[in-house]
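Support request, please re-run this one:
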Amino acid sequence: MEKEKKTSDSMLKAINKYNKDSINLAVSYKRPERNEGLRIKAYLEQTGQTANSYIKALIKADLDNKGFMIDGNDM
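Re-run finished. Output below.
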């Protein structure tokens, strides 16, 4: 039983190390925008995409279109 706890602890440490280098952004649709949120959810279900991949692709296309780059962008 002790071995299971060690595995859990090491897994938690690995997850924390991985997440340390992550950047998290969020989007929220409140009551006045609820229909837009429902429309996006329906689209994602219909196309089989995740919200994360869809949003990342939209943001990347927008910034690329605007020519916005930063140093180290190819990291």
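The CA atoms of residues 29 and 37 lie 6 Å apart. The chain has a mean pLDDT of 89.
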